[in-house]
Amino acid sequence: MILDNVRIYQPNQTYERDRTYAIKVEGEKIEAIYDSPYNGEEDVVDGRGRVLSPSFSDSHMHLLRYGLLKKELDLTQVTSWEEMKAVVENHYDELQQYDWIFGKGFNDGNFDDIDHLLTAKDLNEIQVNAYMYFMHQDGHECVISEQAMELLKEEEDFKKEPDEFKEKDEHGNWNGRFKDTAVHYIKHHFWGRSAEDAKEALKKALPHLSEHGITSVHTDDINFIGSYERLWQAYTELEQEEALPIDAQLHHYVFNINDMKKYITENDFRTGQGTPQVTVGSFKIFLDGTQRLYTAAMRNPYPVEPSADGRLIYTQEQLDDMVKFASDNDMQVAMHAIGDRAVEQAVTALEKSKEATKRLRHRIIHAQTLAPDLIARLRELKPYIETQPSFLLDEWSEKGKWTPESLLPYCDAYESLLKEHIPITLSSDLPIGALNPFTTIFTAVNRTDLNGNPEGGWMPQERISVKGSFLSFTKTPAELEYREEEKGKIEPGYQADFLFLDKHPEEIEPEKLKDIKVLETWHRGKCVYRK
Questions:
Q1: pLDDT at 386
Q2: What phi and psi, each to the nearest 5 degrees, are found at residue 406?
Q3: In angstroms, rounded to a whole number, what is the distance separating the alpha carbons of residues 47 and 326?
Q4: Half-sphere exposure (CA, 13 Å, Cβ side) for 46?
Q5: 28, 60, 13: which is closest to 494 by C-alpha?
Q6: CATH class of 2-49+495-501+513-530
Q7: Among the residues of 92-194, which ranges form H helices?
Q8: 335 phi, psi to nearest 5 deg
């Protein structure tokens, strides 16, 4: 098949903006690129002069969690406690004692009919003896019922989770509210969904990816199903059923080095290996929490909470051992590190496995707070940094509460990283950040919210170019899969993953980037979405 009369947008390539081309697609690959008009004997589809670009690869998301929001109880739109109770009761036909009740996406900080954040006692108003679990919108906090807390008390390994992540009442007892890795523990141990449940949830999510031009994802899902084996089964069965319009790298969240050893003992696949569409991703390691809860590990106290500077989950020795073990067993690591103290810990561990960091392309996720010394060390090391620019839409005005004024210029320092040739990817952290890559690109390029505030952009020296944004959403994520010679570009021999766009990204004003629409999405030579 020949796609004739198309304009190609590919950053840092020689395709001329005012010329059209003909692309030959054979099976799953791009076989050749010719000047247009095409004069051969192949079947021709007229591209009508539209813009064709590489499709997007989202290097950091929680796809199963997003699918469960679409399939199960979605609380993202509730605005009060009374409304939340009503939504829960309407969702479940009949609430019985000792049932499990799940809900995701609430934000009780915005409720105006209660004067406190929800606790286990409040959940008794729904059903006294039910097992309940409600996850906060940002995924870093949850509230569970008193009945569910009784289960937790029997979990010996839960005692190892930091006490700072277990909220207590005035008597020193758990109040049902948990944070960060304590949340992950609860998800991992109590959400034992089947592979069939996961498949149904993923089917709900996948059309939304295709609509926004995403054909590859790196996703951390294990805590929402409880088993890496069941997770692998769900994705590969969808692939076999030809119902998976993406390539998926599946991360393995680990709590400690024993989780790593168990995986290595029981599984033969290592990072980048698997089926044509489903491959093993990284060992995912959480080093700290989040700034909203003052649990991200900072080298300075929080300006609005001087008694807090966050919490490191591991000692340096523990982390060093985990990174070394992963490296020795050909597994990439992806470390969640938001605060500068956590980033420093990650960098120290990677420096001790320097050659493996280069070979395996280890990652640091977020790295939202940096400093000159950390950027200098990252320049020497060059791990991959996974960024989520759409967080700035809501957070730019909050940064001063979390970060000393002297370090604000080093928050979300995308341009500084790129100038030092430190590779970054753009991603969503779905369902927390924006799914639409053009919202993310808009934020990276402008550093404003969708209304253009603040004027000129927040820390405008860290704005990056449209070209840099596209590379960080296409070519660079392919490097993390070790597939940069076959994915992420419009070139002969590359996988036929591409988009038709309604506008050329470099022919519009930067503030209009958010308005670009995907007209068609192609994955492995097949059209999987058409507007």
A1: 98
A2: -65, -20
A3: 46
A4: 1
A5: 28
A6: mainly beta
A7: 120-123, 146-152, 180-190
A8: -110, 120
Phi, psi of 223 (to 5 degrees): -70, -15
Task: Find residue 133's DSSP bridge partners.
Answer: 102, 144
Q: Give 365's strand partners.
A: 336, 386
Taking a C-beta distance cutoff of 8 angstroms, is the pair 160, 177 a contact? no
Q: Which two tokens stand for residue 323?
A: 């990174």
Query: How would CATH label the architecture of 255-464?
Result: Alpha-Beta Barrel (3.20)
Phi, psi of 315 (to 5 degrees): -75, 165
Q: What are phi and psi of 355, to 5 degrees?
A: -65, -40
| Among 100, 169, 167, 174, CA closest to 140 | 167
Min mean pLDDT across 52-61, 204-213, 223-232 is at 223-232
398-447 pLDDT per residue, tens: 999 999 999 999 999 999 999 999 999 999 999 999 999 999 999 999 99
Q: Which CATH architecture has domain 67-190?
A: Roll (3.10)
In angstroms, rounded to a whole number, what is the distance separating the alpha carbons of residues 496 and 137? 35
C-alpha span between 508 and 500 (Å, rounded): 16
Q: Kindly report the number of other CB atoms within 10 A of residue 18's CB atom.
A: 5
CA-based nearest residue to 513, from 484, 479, 473: 473
Delimit the domains of the chain by residue range. 2-49+495-501+513-530, 67-190, 255-464
H/E segment holding residue 236:
helix 228-240
- Identity at 321, one-letter amino acid code: D
Largest CA distance in the chain: 81
Distance CA 486, CA 494 (A): 4
CA-wise closest residue to 398 among 416, 385, 411: 411
Q: Which residues of 65-91 are buried (b: 16+ CB within 10 A; e: fewer)?
A: bbbbbbbbbbbeebeebeebeebbeee
The more confident residue out of 164 and 329 is 329
Q: Do the strands 51-54 and 498-501 form a parallel or antiparallel pair, or are they unpaired?
A: antiparallel
